[in-house]
Amino acid sequence: MVKAVVLGAAGGIGQPLSLLLKTNPLITQLGLFDIVNTPGVAADLSHIATPSVVVGRLPPNDGLKEVLTGADLVVIPAGVPRKPGMTRDDLFKINAGIVKDLATGIATVAPKAFVLVISNPVNSTVPIVAEVFKKHGVYDPKRIFGVTTLDVVRASTFVAEVLGKPAEAPNVVVPVIGGHSGVTIVPLLSQSTHALPSDISADAYAALVKRIQFGGDEVVKAKDGAGSATLSMAYAGYEFSTKIIRALKGEKGIIAPSYVSLKADPAGGSALAAELGTELEFFSSNVELGTEGVVKIHSLGKLTAQEQELVKAAIPELQTNIKTGVTFVAEKY
Ligand code: NAD
Ligand code: LMR
Q: The whole model's pTM is what?
C-alpha cells in the first residue's frame, strides 16, 4: 500500500505529474490538493483503469488534512512559476509562504512522509520545509528532498545531442551536483557515462555547461510569459518519485541525485563537507535511498580543475539561498 500526494496538483506540473503517478501500479491511493480544480482533475484521473483510488480536495473543510492523512510521499509543485526576466529567487516572496503553510500541514498530519520539493527556489524552499519540521519537533533530514532530477534529465539530453546520438539520451548519465539555479547547478561532465569528444573545443564545452545550468531559461523564454518547464518537470518528478517508491518498498541500492541536508548522511556528510572545503547545510549529490529515506550521500569523486571552479562558484550562492530559507521561517513562524 503506497499513498502518494501531490500538493499543487491542478497546476502545469501538478496535472501531468498526477497523471504519471496514476499510471504507477505500486500506488494504491493518490491524493490531490490545490486551491483550485482538484475535484475535476481527480474525477478525470479516476477513470483510468489502474489500481490507485484518487481523491481531490480543496482548502475548505480540512481538505489538506484529508488528503495528507496516511501519506507515504508528498510531492510539492505548488507555487508560481517564472516569467521571462525573472530569476528563481524572485519567486521566493510568494512561494516561501505557500511552502511554509504546506509544510506545516505535512508536519502536523503526515510527519513521517517523504517530502519531495519542486517549488522554486528549491535551494531555499527545502530549508523552509526543514525548519518548519524542526519547529514541530518532527524533523528527519533523511526524508526531505529537493527535486533536482530535471537538471540530470537535461544533462543526458544535451550531452547526447553534442554526441550526435539523440537515441542514446536515456542511457547517458551525468552527475549534476550543487543546487537548482544557475551557477549552483554543477554538471560533472568528466564523470558522464558517455565521454565527450576528446577534441571538443573549450567554447563548446563551456556552452554545454551553460546550457545545463540555464536550461530552465530556454523554456521560460520559449513559453513567453506562460510559465516555465512543466512537462519535462513532470517527467523528472515522476522519475524521482518512482525511485522513492521503489526504495520505500524495500528495493536496495537505489541511487538518485537530490538536494538534501548533509545531516541526512549517517556520517553527517563529513566526507562531502571535506570535499567542498566548507560547511554547507544542504547540497545536491547522488543519494542512496532505503526504506527510511537517505541511506548515504555519495561523495563527489574526482573533479577536474574546471569542475572545481564551478563548485567554488556555487558555494556562496547556495549559502545565501539556504540562509534566506532558514531566516524566513525564523522570522515568520
Ligand atoms: P502553475 O502555476 O502552473 O501551478 C502551480 C499550482 O500551485 C497552481 O495550480 C496553483 O493553484 C497551486 N497553488 C498555489 N498556491 C497553493 C497552495 N497554497 N496550496 C496548494 N496549491 C497551491 O506552476 P507550475 O508551472 O506547475 O510550477 C510550480 C512550481 O514548480 C514553480 O515554483 C516552478 O518554479 C517550480 N518548478 C520547479 C522545477 C524544478 O526543477 N524543481 C521545475 C519546473 C518548475
Ligand atoms: C527549471 O529548471 O525548468 C525550473 O526550475 C523552472 C524555472 O524557473 O526555470
A: 0.98
Average pLDDT of the chain is 97
Distance separating alpha carbons of residues 293 and 145, to the nearest angstrom: 9
Contact 123, 135 (CB under 8 A): no
Closest Cα to atom 3, ligand 2: which residue? 216
SS (H, E, C) 159-219: HHHHCCCHHHHHHCCCCEEECCCHHHEEECHHHCCCCCCCCCCHHHHHHHHHHHHCHHHHH
- Listed residue (91, 101, 55) closest to 216, CA to CA: 91
**Could you give the CA distance from residue 96 to residue 104 in angstroms, rounded to a whole number?**
12
Cβ neighbours of residue 20 under 8 Å, at least 6 residues apart? 234, 235, 237, 238
Instruction: Say if residues 92 and 66 touch (Cβ distance below 8 Å).
Output: no
| Pocket lined around ligand 2, Cβ cut-off 6 Å | 81-82, 88, 120, 150, 216, 219-220, 228-229
287 Cα–ligand 1 center, Å: 25
Lookup result for grid cell 549529490: 285
Secondary element (H or E) of residue 123? helix 122-135
Query: For 22-36, what is each residue's pLDDT tens digit?
Result: 999 999 999 999 999
* 8 A C-beta contact, residue 141 and residue 281: no
